[in-house]
Amino acid sequence: MGAYAPRRAKNIERETECLVDARAEIVTLGGAIVLALCLLLSVVAFGVSQLPDVTGLQRSILALLAVGSWLYCIDSVTERLRLVGHSVEFSAVLSRRRSIPLAELESMLLIYNGFNLERGIESIEFRRRGQKPDRISLGPCWQRHKLEAFLHSVEEALQDPHLLEEVR
Q1: What is the rounded distance in angstroms from the CA atom of residue 62 to the CA atom of residue 46?
Q2: Where are the domains of the chain?
Q3: Which of 69, 99, 135, 165 is spaced 20 to 30 Å from 125 by Cα?
């Protein structure tokens, strides 16, 4: 084959991977930012505790901030979504375990919230017939392609390819 030979057409359709157990990971941009903030707060808290002019209240506040940031980091990294039987289960070490039954599911909404501290970085809203929507707020340690692959596997399980709606 010469340099000017026609190239073979590549298969443009990408196979969507089926993922029934998705986990948050520290190796993401959000995870790196949270880890950097935890380390920074820990170093500042340790450094300030060595200064003689700092009051006990100031030391306590910095220690609480450092411990709180580490707890948030641990909770964010341990988030997990699983497709178990006829429900989606959300769990994390420090968060409340949630189970959303899929029997009456009408649609799923994947919402990107930016750096909204109240709702997390991304959230998934499960809309069911005749009930208030269930919203799961996710932390910053999710890889979007894994999250989308998980939601597509929920679509496949329910045999409804148009169940997922995205809002950016």
Answers
A1: 9
A2: 20-168
A3: 69
3-state secondary structure of 30: helix
Residues in the chain, how many? 168
| Strand boundaries in 20-74, DSSP class E | 21-23
What is the chain's Cα-based Rg? Answer: 21
107-127: per-residue pLDDT in tens?
999 888 776 555 567 889 999
- For residues 92 and 112, the answer to whether their CB atoms sit within 8 Å is no
Q: Which of 77-81, 95-99, 110-114 has the lowest mean pLDDT?
A: 110-114
Residue 118: its pLDDT value, please? Answer: 54
* C-alpha distances in Å from residue 55, one per residue of 43, 47, 65, 71, 80: 17, 13, 16, 25, 41
Q: Residue 69 has what pLDDT?
A: 96
Per the DSSP assignment, residues forming a β-bridge with 109 are 125, 165
CA 95/CA 11 separation, integer angstroms: 42
